[in-house]
């Protein structure tokens, strides 16, 4: 089985290389916006149709011949082509009803994530220890190599975030899917806010609440930024302070989710989770002027807590890590998991009168409500697998 893994490192570049990278990112952003504008025109006039990459790639040559776009001749063509491929992929995700992806939007300097990709790594790039040679006039750069890169490097992506440049190598590996060391260990996972996850075996994983930990410091830094003269020296310093705090929040959350997901995938061959629509669950409740929403402040706090846990990222990590380790992740319907009695099957909101306590109104079964959710999630996963002729010997 061929598998692609990413290896991301901090990139150390000098002033000249930074300037060149910003120019390359500006070229790529310009091409994205120009192509997206033409795609939007086609979508508006021809219905659900937009040009594919094969058509968009020809636009680059035509734009370079136009007087007002002649600066694109200084760009690295592969970067522009890769950006159009990204746009093509974004449109395909948007039209896929299973993914429910957002429509591609325009990129703005300073707000959107700047990145460029270099393909055919072995042909145009060179790796030597902790240094990498890149084309497009960048040259040799140092990067903070914290682990070995295994596999054949196919491409690398340079991006700017949190005030620093980063390089991500995509390496292809040919592996044999391993047998999981605990093939009969299945577990249901109920994600929440008070606890990141509660397992069907009764154990729980604490929530890290990364944003809540830094909320006051971030609010203070954002207030200071709002008082600065826009684009002044002090404004840039205050903006960098906000970026550092936002980066710290994201890094703390990401690190915790990686450690948690790795442990779960190592110890359980089958992870049964709820098929949650996080985007819908965290949508704003303010409504419109004609039809204003109710409990807007409370819903806003709930949305912040949901997004602070990183449920979507947690699921993504569980899915790809289980694949690496020979396990599997099964998503089951999420309705009434905490209102269904795991003993008698009675479904009623009266079974859960408080946030944490579950007491069945029929058989009197008592347990923690989150544990009950984990048990019901696991039961639904077992039911689905029994239809397919597969059931664990022990849980």
Automatic annotation (TrEMBL):
Residues 1-47 form the Transposase putative helix-turn-helix domain. Keywords: DNA recombination, DNA-binding, Metal-binding, Transposition, Zinc. GO terms for biological process: DNA recombination; transposition. One of its GO terms (molecular function) is DNA binding. InterPro entries: Cas12f1-like_TNB, RNA-guided_DNA_endo/Transpos, Transposase, Transposase_put_HTH. The lineage of its organism: Bacteria, Pseudomonadati, Pseudomonadota, Gammaproteobacteria, Oceanospirillales. In the N-terminal section; belongs to the transposase 2 family. Pfam families: Cas12f1-like_TNB (PF07282), HTH_OrfB_IS605 (PF12323), OrfB_IS605 (PF01385). NCBIfam families: guided_TnpB. This is Putative transposase. It comes from Marinobacterium stanieri. Residues 174-283 form the Probable transposase IS891/IS1136/IS1341 domain. Residues 311-377 form the Cas12f1-like TNB domain.
């Amino acid at each position: 089985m061929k598998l692609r893994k990413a290896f991301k490192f901090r990139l150390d570049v000098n002033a000249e290389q930074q300037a060149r990278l910003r120019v390359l990112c500006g070229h790529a952003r310009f091409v994205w916006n120009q192509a997206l504008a033409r795609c939007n025109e086609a979508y508006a006039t021809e219905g659900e149709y937009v040009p594919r990459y094969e058509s968009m790639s020809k636009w680059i040559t035509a734009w370079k011949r136009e007087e007002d776009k002649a600066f694109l001749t200084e760009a690295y063509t592969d970067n522009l082509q890769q950006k159009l491929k990204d746009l093509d992929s974004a449109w395909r995700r948007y039209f896929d009803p299973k993914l429910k992806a957002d429509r591609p939007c325009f990129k703005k300097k300073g707000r959107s994530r700047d990145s460029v990709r270099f393909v055919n790594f072995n042909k145009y790039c060179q790796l030597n220890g902790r240094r990498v040679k890149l084309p497009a006039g960048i040259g040799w750069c140092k990067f903070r190599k914290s682990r070995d890169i295994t596999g054949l490097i196919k491409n690398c992506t340079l991006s700017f975030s949190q005030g620093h440049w980063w390089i991500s190598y995509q390496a292809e590996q040919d592996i044999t899917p391993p047998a999981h060391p605990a093939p009969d260990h299945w577990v249901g996972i109920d994600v929440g806010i008070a606890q990141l996850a509660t397992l069907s075996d009764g154990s729980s994983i604490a929530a890290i609440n990364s944003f809540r930990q830094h909320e006051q410091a971030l609010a203070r830094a954002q207030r200071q930024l709002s008082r600065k003269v826009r684009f002044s020296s002090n404004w840039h310093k205050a903006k960098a302070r906000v970026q550092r705090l936002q980066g710290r929040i994201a890094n703390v959350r990401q690190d915790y989710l990686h450690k948690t997901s790795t442990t779960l995938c190592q110890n359980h061959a089958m992870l049964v989770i709820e098929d949650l629509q996080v985007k819908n669950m965290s949508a704003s409740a303010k409504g419109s002027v004609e039809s204003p929403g109710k409990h807007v402040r409370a819903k806003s706090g709930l949305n912040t807590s949901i997004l602070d846990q990183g449920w979507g990222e947690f699921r993504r990590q569980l899915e790809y890590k289980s694949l690496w380790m020979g396990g599997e992740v099964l998503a089951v319907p999420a309705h009434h998991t905490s209102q269904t009695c795991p003993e008698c099957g009675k479904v009623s909101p009266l079974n859960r009168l408080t946030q944490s306590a579950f007491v069945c109104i029929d058989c009197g079964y008592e347990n923690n409500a989150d544990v009950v959710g984990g048990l019901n999630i696991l039961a639904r996963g077992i039911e689905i697998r029994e239809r397919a002729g597969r059931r664990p010997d022990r849980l």
